[in-house]
Amino acid sequence: MKQRLTIPMLVMAIVAFAVIVMLGFGIARWLGTSETDVSAPAVAEASSNTNSTTPNSASNNSMAAHQVTTTRATTPHDANAVLARRASMRLDPALIAVGQQKTQILELVNPQEVFNAMPYLTEKQRTDQRSFIRYDPYVIETKFVGDAIDIYIPEIGTTLLGVIEQVETQGEVIRWAGTLQNFNSTQSRFSISQTIRDNYAVATFDTPMGSFNLEAKNGLGWIVNQTEDFHLPSDGKDYVDVPNQRGGATQHSHSH
Fold first, then answer.
1. 57-85 residue pLDDT tens
2. Dihedral of alpha carbons 140, 146, 148, 149, sign
């Protein structure tokens, strides 16, 4: 005799099926979690092994981050704007392109390289506390008001951040002036003047830790504390006597 399927029996079958599906889903999740938990330590161990084989990676990353924060990138200007400022001269487009990407205006060099290029240096200039440098004129040449430059001062072991606030053109000489952002002082300023035709540059950097002069010719020169650059003559006078129209002498101060 055939057994008839009643409604209560159908409901019980549906419930049983649902319970079986839920149990199966729960077991699958438990198994998946277990596998993940087992594999996670393996990943951590692999990471640990990688770190142990490259112990300097953390310090290298830190150094890279430090370099990024201390190097002040400047958005390159249109090369035509640089050329227009030197309309009477022919600038090297390749050097302009390189200078636009750089902010560091100088780097230390072997003193002998400067001695070979400047045989006229005195013995005092060769042996005092000045630091001999290579100077790239195209770094500052490609900068405008609002741009930043980096100036390494060897005596204080610090790279200064200079922000250009003024650019003046007088004939073939251009002067860039601005503030040094490393110090909370209104007297922390810099000034750089150069002529590309003569490939000659002079600069001053005033800081609470001292004032420094830079001089470079054909890309080589020095940076020195102003106290090393200033010396009284043998008679101890800081002035010269200039005869006036009446035959007397007028005193004018000067530096050396």
1. 333 333 232 232 233 445 677 888 999 99
2. positive
